[in-house]
Amino acid sequence: MELEVRHLRALCAIADTGSLHRAARRLGVSQPSLTTQLQRIENTLGAELFSRERTGCRPTLLGRAVLSRARPLVDGMTALVSEARAEADAVRASGPRLRIGCTASRVIGGWLRRLRLRLPGTDISLRVDVSASALLRTVAAGGLDVAFVHEVEGCPLAVPEGLEQRVLLEREPQFISMARDHPAAARSVVDLGDLAADRWMVDPTVDGEWDGLRRVLGEAGLAPTVLHGDYLTAASLIVLGEAVAPCQPTSGPRDDMAIRPLRDDPLAIRLLLVSRPGADLATVYGELEAAYREAARRVAGYHQWLLRNRSPLARTQ
User: Fold this and answer.
1) Could you tell me the pTM of the whole model?
2) Rounded CA gap, 208 and 11, in Å?
3) pLDDT tens digit string along 43-100?
4) 67: how many CB neighbours lie within 10 A of its CB?
5) In the chain, what is the straight-line distance between the N-terminal and C-terminal CA atoms, in Å?
6) Fewest CB within 10 A of the end CB: N or C in the chain?
7) What secondary structure letter does DSSP report for 6?
8) Residue pair 164/274 in contact by the 8 Å Cβ criterion
9) Closest CA to 172 of 63, 293, 25
10) DSSP of 167-194, one letter per residue?
């Protein structure tokens, strides 16, 4: 078997996520398929590239050497494809365009609506990704103009050199979603200790999410059962009382779910807008800020939090 770029991309994904399961999700393939592919790569090279441990996969000495050569090739191919597509889009486009990337956020709909009104005639595209790091690399490679991403507290993002950035919110608290009949739902503010006996759910494919939660729970002296899965699955478990999970404070109220702030806000993220030099960051940022303020105002509990903490985002104008 000859090694191809797709094989190198698979190795990088395994190294980045530390898990065959998470790497398979990122690549959009099944775990058995990725396991077979890794075995074929290792057979071709004649040695193991990763040691399989209970906690995940770690590169061997040979694996680290191969990865050091593979990453520049993968990044170069990604840049080549992104730039080629960008040029092809430019040839087809009859007017200005704005290519937006973002991690999941409740404000995206309002932001896009505002941008379409503010920039009529602009071809606006959107790419949503669980990985903030992947979005930042795509901006740096020219595949996106701007990216709205979140950085989990204690897990800083590596922003590529040369990119411009503005902070929308230095510290956005993460609230907790739970079943309506959860005992803690009767309180307006919840203590971490109130949730010590619950199963927590977190998506480990979201950059920093699992590490950030593990740090906060550890500092509180808690070791609850943690389930790994996407947040769509989490919602179905939460309403049945099978789990609790962190959520964005802009999450709107639901009849089947309670959303409460945590006392002293131990879980938090930083919200950033990142762009390539030359992008109209002022206009894009201004509409993002307005959309965020609008989303926050619709959620009474979060708007009150912003007022208590004297955030400028609590202003009506």
Assistant:
1) 0.70
2) 20
3) 999 999 999 888 789 999 999 999 998 988 888 888 888 777 777 766 665 678 899 9
4) 19
5) 62
6) C
7) H
8) yes
9) 293
10) EEEEEEEPEEEEETT-GGGGSSSB-GGG
